[in-house]
Amino acid sequence: MQKYLATFRRLFPGTHHIFASITLILGVFAVIYTLGVSQGFFLRGFITSLDKSVLDVILLHRDAARSGFFLFFTYLGNAEIIASLSLVILLIMTLSRKVRAAWFFIIALFAGQSLSLLFKYLLVRSRPDTAHALIEQGGYSFPSGHAMGSVVFYGMLGYFLCTLLVRHRHHILVTLSTVAVIALIGISRLYLGVHWLSDVVAGWIMGSTLLIVFIVFFEHRKSLFPVVHRDPWVSRFVLIVSALLLSLAEALFIAHFFLSHPLR
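and the corresponding structure tokens:
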């Protein structure tokens, strides 16, 4: 056991072995949890009962204000919003010459989407009754793509922001904001009646596992193969102006999206 731990720490220097250990634990738990929900290996009756109980409670507490609030957050997890934000982030990374970070970002998003679709088509779990849904949503239920995708996307975004910020309180603010957005996106899927609780929890677990895998691997590669500092492709002034223009274009797109998808 001591030899294993020593090898593990050599592979993942500093505090990286802690995150790697968390990744392994989450990964094993994700597999067990998935089998439990889909194949009835454990607690299937309890999970099914809990899913129905949570949906019943939600149905009793719906109103127009809450519906608008949760629609807003479910839109933040929609493919259109995440894809457009990703494009802006990748363009800024490219102009800043952060090529390695850009590739990790692309691969993480692709892996998250692919795994979500893979599990959906392997497990073919039905969504809650459409009579309870406040929005139309096709496809299968398990795991929640919004929950899993938001963990990977907003988690990676929060991680990269923390690498740019120096002060500890800014790290805390970014982390809390990221967790809040991810949590509300997942809860919105329950409130809108398009997912079961176990779908959302599975999405969070799988997304967190994937996120930690990519962050640990990215940090590990940086420690083994340090990136040589290079100036951005463009001047600092052009980079700032480009980032502002891209952000403005993204803000206009999001405004158009929300206006064409009313919060009702």
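(Above: one complete record from the training split.) The CA atoms of residues 75 and 261 lie 9 Å apart.
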